[in-house]
């Protein structure tokens, strides 16, 4: 694409979304930056959506989009799936409340289903998000091992808290040696303590990772890893198998962050695909069918560190004179195991068990069609990913194995492509991955490929 032509997508975007801009100007008077989550913002301003149905989103200007963001993969059944809506309505009517504040039957029903799908999960706890699930997994690992350092991989995201918000998207100048990455804080307001206590590893490089882990093994409680980085860069099978053996040898717990990959590679996630049992697992996003939920589960002896005990409750004022709260791991949350959300999750699983094969067939058709269109124009692009998530990477590199490899991509071209596609009714947040739902079918594929063909001619 000629340099002078780049940016035309954003110009037309502004012409098509004036009501979003008008609304955004009001939103910044209410929320910093006009949004309540940084991830929802993109320049020059985010589209303000008014409603969604099936595979589609509709904005304030009446523009219709095929939705490939799907709330970052959470909506694996699309918007407003009728069976999920019915399940939530029936729970409310049958139970007479949307919150018990006590244990209830759906906690066990959902839990048993998760245990069937994820055999590594012997016991589990519910949380309200994937971020909370990884947070609990790390606390469990530290409590169980008595060690306070953790290791994560460069380019991997596990939530917005200090302990893991390091080296997610560092500049290559700050990141240091690719075989010995530096720990780089990713937010203002972070304590530098975590740059020293969160050890950074290179993904898909077992030899280098092994050297680092052996150095810190006596201080490391756990390694947390996205088996599919960002949801679209897979671990090599030999790397994942080697990592499992290494953690067992060094007595370091292995945590799988399957928030993005839950139900996306298959019903058993990445651990089923790689045939590996991690010590702890964090689930989120698709597991709730669009409702806020997280699950932390794993080995019985590790999970039982959180067993509640008499006289060991941080909120039990009657024991304040001789409290033993520090003798157990604290985990709580008013909305943990929310009955309406669990009803949605149980029905989501039921639908997926019928639909997941078709979803994965749909995404393969779409990826093949996109690759063919670019190949016909002699443009180097990879449709990278497994299961029902993938990303478009403009690069001449033969293989993308980690964060460093990804930096070879032409992000400027990808951003222009995304805005041009938005203008043609194909939506994902610019530079983000594509997710597919059960609501996407042949009609969506045909419309998407037509839009791609039209945009590629301009590129």
TrEMBL record:
Cofactor(s) listed in the protein's UniProt record: pyridoxal 5'-phosphate
MF GO annotations: transaminase activity
UniProt keyword terms in alphabetical order: Aminotransferase, Pyridoxal phosphate, Transferase
Entry annotated with the keyword Transferase: yes
Official protein name in the record: Aspartate aminotransferase family protein
Top-level taxonomic group: Bacteria
Family classification: Belongs to the class-III pyridoxal-phosphate-dependent aminotransferase family.
